[in-house]
Design brief:
Distance between the termini: 27 Å
Oligomer: single chain
CATH topology of the largest domain: Rossmann fold
Largest sheet: 7 strands, mixed
Number of domains: 2
Strand order of the largest sheet: 9-8-7-6-10-11-12
Strand content: 15-25%
Shape: globular
Bound molecules: NADPH dihydro-nicotinamide-adenine-dinucleotide phosphate
CATH architecture of the largest domain: 3-Layer(aba) Sandwich
Number of helices: 17
CATH class of the largest domain: Alpha Beta
Order of helices and strands: HHHHEEEHEHEHHEHEEHHEEHEHEHHHH
Structural class: alpha/beta
Amino acid sequence: MNDYVQSTLNALRRRCAHESEFLQAAEEILHSIAPVIDRHPEYEAAGLLERFCEPERVLLFRVPWTDDSGRVRVNRGFRVQFSSALGPYKGGLRLHPSVNLSIVKFLGMEQVLKNSLTGLPMGGGKGGSDFDPKGKSDGEVMRFCQSLMTELYRHIGPDTDVPAGDIGVGAREIGYLFGQYKRMTGRFEGVLTGKGLSWGGSLARKQATGYGLLYLLEAMLTREGLRAEGLRAVVSGSGNVAVYAAEKAMQMGMTVTAMSDSAGFVEDSRGIDLELVKQIKEVERGRIAEYVRRRPGSRYTEGARGIWQLPCDVALPCATQNELDTEDAKALLRSGVKAVAEGANMPLTPGAAALMQEGGVLYAPGKAANAGGVAVSGLEMSQNSLRLSWSFEEVDARLKGIMQGIFEAAAAAAEEYGQPRNYVLGANIAGFRKVAEAMMQQGCV
Ligand code: NDP
């Protein structure tokens, strides 16, 4: 590998030794872009890779809040403003007990390239907290969100940093965060995306990541002369991304045979009843295990990982990072999986990703495949600036166009660099080139 890439990677391993998820993401990206660095020796003198790998700013703060019994709790809040080369920082907030600096940095770095791929003017950032919304009352979630925003508001704004949702942050949390931002600043402006439809949100934002995933999958299948219709899909997770990935898969004529949450998975060979999943997960905020009590003939198994042992044509991991490892990949290959498209960020371990590629499986990495969410967030920002709202059909059509454009850019870059069908390489290169050019043009900042 190129010496400059290697030395940057070595330095990163020393400086970020405890940030395993960040290193995992950075290693994949740096390996992919090495051939671009070969063509641009001027990047070394400009310290471009060192700058690319270091977030512009990391914010870490205390989030005190009061639980329903009157006890004061303290969580950690994070915002990593990774890169503003292409526009204001843009990326979600995650609320999950596993959140730490390594996870937020990995997500931030992925977001920089993902946002670049959309073609919209957005830099990359990510944030969140180790707060666990599960089992908390509405009041507790509200007080937590208000406290988080009481610190965060001074670092964000419609032209500086525009957060959105991610794991554990949906419409309810965005509402509480926006309310507090407005109260702290006195301004009603497009500082968050994923807002309610009556106060600046975009139609199709809720569906965007899941639908976008299927639009990209369809483009990838079409290139091979394959059709989505009739294929069996397994979808992990049952949150925002998973539900709307399943919905679009069904609309395309696929059968979704299983879904999961962090505790286990349900199998339904007739095809998952998605309205029931929505009722349980979106309305009741319940567990997926509840599905089998209301749907005779379906089956529940404890343990989320077991879902990858089920045979399928298409695997859509839509839960979380590193949820599909080499053993799972081997099981999928044995069952003859044709395509894997990542709804979640980095859901395959590096070993699993390598097995898929060696096995000739069509493999769409998250930074391309799940870019639909941030793409429609970008469209929400445009609508807010224009003080207009577009119809569902209009947003959906733009989303489809953007996803097709992302696929074509990744496919073209993979071909140009002599590895056709390697969409990991293609997406990393296509995303990186624009960021690198902008960084060079903007000087050493
Ligand atoms: P949600 O909180 O809506 O849903 C997350 C789902 O994943 C839930 O079913 C949850 O189960 C499950 N899950 C979470 N953690 C784990 C775990 N450790 N093991 C197994 N299952 C787990 O989040 P989203 O749907 O928004 O996000 C899912 C993924 O998609 C994340 O990787 C996110 O970064 C990525 N993404 C999201 C976008 C968006 O627009 N929302 C955009 C692009 C990517 P349980 O309910 O039991 O916790």
